[in-house]
Fold:
Amino acid sequence: MSDAASEKNTELMEKIVSLCKRRGFVFQSAEIYGGLNGCWDYGPLGAELKRNLKDYWWRKNVQEREDILGLDGSILTHQDVLKASGHVGGFSDPMCDCLLSKARLRADQIPAQSGTAYWYSGASHEESGWYVEREYAVLLQEGQDENKARKTARQYYAQFLTDKRISPKKLELAGEKTEEIKESTRFNPENGSLLTEPREFNLMFKTHVGASADDGDESAVAYLRPETAQSIFSQFKNVMDSNRIKLPFGIAQIGKSFRNEINPRNYTFRSREFEQMEIEFFCRPEDGMQLTDDWLELRLKFYEEIGIPREHLHILDVPDGERAHYSKKTYDIEYEFPFGIQELEGVAYRTDYDLSKHQEHSKKPLAVFDEDTKEKLIPHVVEPSAGCDRTVLALICEAFDEETVTDEKGKEEVRTVMRFSPRMAPIKVGVMPLLKNKPELVEKAREIQAMLTPFMTVFYDETAAIGRRYRRQDEVGTPFCVTVDFETLGESGDELKDTVTLRHRDSMEQERIAISELRAYLLDQIA
RNA sequence: GCGGGUAUAGCUUAGUGGUAAAGCUCCAGCCUUCCAAGCUGGCCACGUGAGUUCGAUUCUCACUACCCGCUCCA
Structure:
């Protein structure tokens, strides 16, 4: 992306963020207390939008399918589940940072070194009176010049200089002392610089179950789940036993997951608390590869149905070496966000890795008896795992549009319009009397509101001029507005009596429709 | 995690070491017959905490959050 394009996209993103706050789609979590890093709240319209997405996903993937069952697992997760899955232990490598180069190294991969460590307590610059007190050390291998240690140390201390014109060479080192070191992993093999203490980078939120449990009680440890998938795998047997269902079949779940991301970024895109929409689709081993392709197509179709066109999606066939070690095939479905092309969903063929691991750790049989082949097998699994909040953000980015419109006087102005598909739009229809100081109009509009409310989200508005009300609805993406005028009341004859203006968001076109046809028409449009 | 930037009303922006300004939005009233009309009035802000100072929104430091670039993303 060129600088100019990048700047334009940053501007676009800022406009989107601003609109989301102004109209109540997304707020920063705990904003009145300064905000909580990586956490966001959905306001009234965002909550509707997200609900529409989840409801549609659930309907398409669970309710309209005989071969997929729903699950709603607990967020607090037994530590053994996550030990089996590899989330505890496997992904908590201690890391060290090089104090000089800022490089990050895995502690267990640093080769042990021996030599002479040169320790310093700080540095100063006589002319300017600047000084810093900070312990630092450089490891020299046998035969290396001790001036190398001093040069490295000066470079280290120079990064604290406020006046960058001072050369590191002019610094006086303080408190030099040496120490013989044997088999130490505290130094960077690249440059001899001291490293930070090893730090755990487990990205899971840890907690203790039971009000009286103290922090030291290891048996009380539980985690907030880092993915919804594990409760599906650990409940696999119960779901099978309680439902007469045969391979292939899936278990679907929508729910919150938590990852203590080192660096949350890009608005709600990478949050510490996020919602997933996941399916684990269990199958025979020989069907895994084909099903992965089939699911990719199904998922792409889904995005199209909610208003994210195929042209704005990218399919990444994750190459060997970049996939998780147990995955034989993975597709990432990516979307062109203003801040870059980023993943919305992963469709992964995970083989029998998960169920095998849980069988091994729980010592409970998780194999299925296959009637066709008369043998027991651990099902393989294909996992379409979608980011719910990411998809909401994609819907918002995709919908956002600024259009220049020219009024009759030739005056140009910008119309901001969220072009949500009617299916996803938080508000389906705005109902308004043309004038609020004419009780007959208000009464009729209220009747229409009451008639539609049981079937869809309706927004009643009577304040300000009609044009302003239309534009307000444009900005929140309401696809239809219905206006009651004097013709509705029969002032222009019976032909127009009990008809209303139906105004379309995208084209701003208006048509006349009978009140009696309104409900069926709108329901058809938003289904 | 590193480096850089930013923080004034719901939004967008002015401004100042001495009682903080505007446009839009929003609310109320009047008026108004289909695309952000007009008039009147109203609500509402210097991110948090220290320090310097007689006095700090302004200067300094720390913290927090957000943005950008790296890094990371099981």
